[in-house]
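Input (TraB/GumN family protein):
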Amino acid sequence: MTKPEIFLVGTFHMSMNPEMINDQQEEIREIVHSLKKFKPTKITVEKPFLIEEEMERKYIAFKNNTLTPTYDEVEQFAFRLANEMDLPSVYPVDEMVDMSRPSLKQVFEWAKEHQPSLFKEIMDVQNRLKLMENNETIKNILHYVNDSDYSKELQRIYMKLARVGDRQHQVGVQWLKQWHHRDLAIAANISRLAEKGDRILVLIGGDHLHLLKQFLTDSGDFKVLSAKPYLPQ
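Output:
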């Protein structure tokens, strides 16, 4: 039996750079055209099921040419691709998780105050990540976000965060439990959508790629593909 294929496409939150989105509409269209080569049967996105009806209304409006896409990767990428592939829906697969107990900011503050050498290690990895980043164009961003070396360095930060705290105060571990809960739930939501012969494109924040790939691969139920071969040069 042919396993469903899952195509993980790491992206960034476009609302943080509206000027780039305005200036690079041609590049966005080029990316969508390139992603069509995967021939997805379903497209899933980093949105919670609580807004599923609203998202469905927006997608219908987009198909009817009555919606101008906002600075949102779902509307810029997923709606365009789904429409060109004549898909009936775009599926939200994110999970609502309280990430504030502790917050990531509190984890970093603890490390800075109580574990300065560990804090420096974390900052050193972050600096290496910045050297790998190229934010000149949307294509450049997608290339480094979906690069396996970039993902590995990002995962190193998470594993260093696990050491933040002490035996009585597992600050980093508590935050990572929230993060793993979210990614495991996303993987489960994707898995429940998969049917025989499906080719599912997952549009997701780049920092989720490592765990999603691990969870979906470990299930043995899917063929998990990287976005790199499908991105325009």
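The longest strand covers residues 5-11.
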